[in-house]
Amino acid sequence: MRAKRQRRLIIVVGLVALVAIAVGLTLYALRANINLFFTPSQIAAGEAPHGRTMRLGGVVEKDSVERESDSLEVTFRVTDFAKDVEVRYDDILPDLFREGQGVVVIGQLDDAGEFIAQQVLAKHDETYMPPEVAEALKATGNLPDGSVPSS
Predict the structure, then answer these.
(1) Phi, psi (5° rounding) for residue 83?
(2) Are 110 and 51 contacting, i.e. CB atoms less than 8 angstroms apart?
(3) How far does Cα 6 stand from its chain's mean position?
(4) Residue 119 bridge partners (DSSP)
(5) Is residue 55 a contact partner of residue 39, using CB atoms and an 8 Å limit?
(6) Does residue 139 carry a pLDDT above 50?
């Protein structure tokens, strides 16, 4: 009888260990794929981690887009009308990218405070604004008139 209990205990402990390892690996994999959303004000306040992929949302500041003449590199500022963040992107911008319109940028914040973009997502019509951007602008009290967040 004692050997039977000991065998069951070993099996149960083994199963619990396997489940714990599986849950740990799953959480680690999900952590690597999560892109947190930050506003320019949050980045200026130091709330955003450096060197980790994240999403930055706001409005492309007017007269801030500068293109390099000999490459695809573009720099621009994303603002929430309280603070702004300098963004550098080295690829072709979407056709709908314009100054004064909502944008979500995926990339990493470098140690100098510049956002190095891997992808730029522009809104698709005049009234659309990404929900995260609209909520962030609404929180600062700077939501432009006519902007309707998508549900």
Answers:
(1) -135, 165
(2) yes
(3) 50
(4) 106
(5) no
(6) yes
Distance in angstroms (rounded) separating the CA atoms of residues 58 and 121: 11
Under a CB-based contact definition with an 8 Å cutoff, are residues 126 and 147 in contact? no
Give the pairing type, strands 84-90 and 73-79: antiparallel
Cβ-contact 74, 89 below 8 angstroms: yes
User: Which DSSP symbol is given to 68?
Assistant: -
Rounded to whole angstroms, the Cα distance separating 26 from 34 reads 13
From start to end of 2-144, where are the E strands?
Answer: 36-38, 54-60, 66-67, 73-79, 84-90, 102-109, 115-122, 128-129
Rounded Cα gap, residues 29 and 23, in angstroms: 10
User: What is the tens place of the pLDDT at every residue in 84-102?
Assistant: 899 999 999 888 888 888 8
- Give the tens place of pLDDT for each residue, 55-84: 998 889 999 999 988 888 999 999 988 888
Read off the pTM: 0.66
So what's the pLDDT on residue 110?
86
